[in-house]
Amino acid sequence: MPRLTLRFYRELNDFLPKPLQQRDFTRDFVVLGAVKNIIEAVGVPHTEVDLILVNGQSAAFDYHPEDGDRISVYPLFEALDISSITRLRPRPLRESRFVLDCHLGRLARYLRMLGFDCVFSGHCADQRLVEISVQQERILLTRDLDLLKRKALTHAYYVRAIRPLKQLAEVVHRLQLQNSFAPFSRCTVCNGTLTKVTREEVWSQIPPTSRRKFTEYCRCEGCGRVYWKGSHYKRMHRLIATVKGD
Description:
Distance between the termini: 54 Å
Largest sheet: 5 strands, mixed
Protein name: Twitching motility protein PilT
Number of strands: 12
InterPro entries: Mut7-C_RNAse_dom, Ub_Mut7C
Radius of gyration: 22 Å
Domain Ubiquitin Mut7-C: 1-81
Strand order of the largest sheet: 2-1-5-3-4
Strand content: 15-25%
Domain Mut7-C RNAse: 97-239
Pfam families: Mut7-C (PF01927), Ub-Mut7C (PF14451)
């Protein structure tokens, strides 16, 4: 029976049982198929992988290893200089456009607050999420491991954290988004872009107390919702600074 030695690095260990984490281990296979299938059989989604080395040489997902091969698997955004070898993707996945599954609504709102283009629906089938990710070149954010193993997916990330604010910090850190913020440029509700308007243009939509206190307003080009720098504005600025690490 063919046997392979495998080693997964950094956050890829999140998908492995503790006895297999942070070390070499061997695994027997009845048939040695493509290395992509071998990696996912161990439990690691292919969308989390950016580099595979077989006996020290870079390999694509469709490479078929042989008995006795050593396979080293590295995650997305690994701080490693691999400029001289072939990555699994011809361009980085650090696009600031996202589609999120139905469990990540609060995260979608936080990302929109930072200015990121996020598609979210509380009722979207898995296949449709995959289609949106592929057709619109959006990174799929999800907590569904089975969804991440869809063959068509190339831009996806498994969100580890449970609480929305921790999810936000995780996604910003792992996808290195700190320098891509455009705060308060998108509607947190519908994802539309915000445009500055005069107080007179939105007079009927502003509470009387706010009319007296504020002079600067923005309106969503999608749903028409009006935004102004109310009491929540300073709290949101502090949150943004914390997430960015300022």
